[in-house]
């Protein structure tokens, strides 16, 4: 049944503070950066005197190997044990995600989630998100990231002259548990040399794979990811708020709290969406590149053969049934299909689906990794700098136990085309 909710339009720096009195402190998540076992996602470790007592580094271990199946690990992208030594070069000892996209001028940008540096520093050098840049198109031997240079928007990271070995935060958050604890990237795309990054404002963490968002929105960068500004026209609120004068927004905004972008072969850009957490279904909307900041011009897939696309987002129908975790979508020339990677939090697997059209129908999932082969792995993102047309699909994924990002490779000759 359709219903309407009173929701407050929120900004990046000040997020729905009026609801703070009614919300409890967030529950812990599962990762353990800097040895923060059991309190990651709460306010206890951040900015408190306990930071230096919780460990000197991330819990990263040597790269795990996968001896069987269609997928192999290639190398760590982040962490002290990566070829990039991001702990000393970028102040990144622990992070996740690694969402990548082509910046349109020969580089791949990679966006990461909550990031930790020196575990003994005040607040453990927590940043809500960071971005690294690379020109590496041979991920088969790992991904190399050049050093950050202050003021250089093509260097490996946005860094300041005062902290040249610490990647800067991209999109801020108040960092208040139960109000707006962090800001997490979910997708990125370049249009005419301008970078667009979809992100979610997380209100509170719950049990593993569950969280609540305030809203999703698009941040814009005109300097290759060096600085970002949220486009207020793209905010999709996801909170009920009793605030006077709040804007009325349809509840189906919740279908697009996390995203993936695809440049279609038909001139449209497709945005795939899921609700907050890893247990919802997947939906899709499309728009012309020039209209990315105008939600009124988006069209939503309805599943109706007579009228498959509609400007009414309440008519949006699922294209993949739940549970769908973080996802990425891309055209693959080798298979001649669109590919969708996503996690299944129900069984701890990463899976691949194929389709001949961006909206599907999507095939049944083919497992790339199961929890027996490699446990705690999530967020598979197709690497945008991959060679075109080869038999190997390269993608990044994160692992809870290490709280870092790795590169993996799938042999597409072992993937059934459906």
What can be said about this structure in brief?
This protein is an all-beta fold and 418 residues long. It has 1 helix and 23 strands.
Key traits:
418 residues; mainly beta; Tachylectin-2, Chain A; six-stranded antiparallel beta sheet; 1% helix; DUF4185; Sialidase_sf; signal; DUF4185 domain-containing protein
Please give the structural blueprint:
Elements: E1 4-7, E2 71-76, H1 86-89, E3 97-102, E4 108-112, E5 130-134, E6 182-191, E7 194-205, E8 211-221, E9 229-237, E10 247-250, E11 258-263, E12 269-274, E13 280-287, E14 299-301, E15 309-310, E16 320-324, E17 327-332, E18 337-344, E19 349-355, E20 366-369, E21 377-382, E22 392-399, E23 404-411
Keywords: Signal
Region (Disordered): 133-174
Signal peptide: 1-31
How is this structure best described in words?
1% of the residues lie in helices and 36% in strands. The strands form six sheets. Strands 11, 12, 13, 14, 15 and 16 form a six-stranded antiparallel beta sheet that branches. A four-stranded antiparallel beta sheet has the order 2-23-22-21, with no helix packed on it. The chain has a single domain (4-414), classed as 5 Propeller (Tachylectin-2, Chain A), CATH 2.115.10. With 418 residues, it is an all-beta fold. It has one helix and 23 strands.
